[in-house]
Amino acid sequence: MAASVAFIFHIGYIAGMAYTFEVVAEPRRREILDLLRDRDRLVGELVAELRLAQPTVSKHLKVLHRAGLVEVRRDAQRRWYRLRPQPLAEIDLWLAPYRSLWETSLNALEHHLDTMPDGTAPDDEEE
């Protein structure tokens, strides 16, 4: 039974991460996340920064909220939006092994460049 619960959790985790990828694949939503990274913002501020219609920004905020990437705080008639980075941390954790592959490649390139004679490139060898 514990194995089936773990499997269901894993499937849910992967599905949630896939949805997060889908949500952040949209460039305007990434812009909104970038703006919210600095500080909480009102919808009107986001509309002014992004130069988009208010209904368009609200639609993107609704999708981001559904994905758990933003939270909303009501203050009288105003709604403040705040970044919720936890879903991004899950993606970052998943990307960690791939990042180490990239770092290994960069280290190999650095080693190759360090072992080349100064002032020459592999194609510059004398004939």
TrEMBL record:
It comes from the Bacteria. One of its GO terms (molecular function) is DNA-binding transcription factor activity. The keyword Transcription applies. This is Uncharacterized HTH-type transcriptional regulator Rv0081/MT0088. Residues 9-103 form the HTH arsR-type domain. Keywords: DNA-binding, Transcription, Transcription regulation. SMART domains: HTH_ARSR.
